[in-house]
Input
Amino acid sequence: MQKKHGIRWKEFKAHWQNYIFQVLFATISTFFVLLTLKLQQAVIVASIGSTAFIVFAMPKSITAQPKNIIGGYIAGISVGSLCSLVPHMSLLHSMFLYAAAVGLSIFAMVLTDTEHPPASGAALGIAMLGFSLKVVLAAMTSVLILALIHNVFKDYLRDLT
Output
């Protein structure tokens, strides 16, 4: 692949429609996430933004598959919710619980074969913010929409990386 100053000009020229189409999809889906979640839930929003990157820039990746997206977020949200229920006795204890949410979410995803790295960010966010049904519903709705878009348009999406 010919690169000119780090840019894939030849690839872009040949498939510019995919670049535009996939970037617009990522933008629109992220916009709707922002409408449903507050900026205080920035960690959750950021994890879903990372999911949008994987779905639209790396759609052939195993982590972009609907099973991994949905299963990864179920694992991450579940672990984050459980960690948020543990009483926080000190700042150090809180930091350990937040770190444990990340580690345990990775463990859960690996065990269930649903690896999706951004879902560990969701685990961290929920552990830090505490369980909120509204946040869980908004995150899972966003994730389901991204997985649906990936599934419906998988024949038209191409790896841009």
About this structure: Residues 91-112 form the longest helix (22 residues). The radius of gyration is 17 Å. The mean pLDDT is 90.
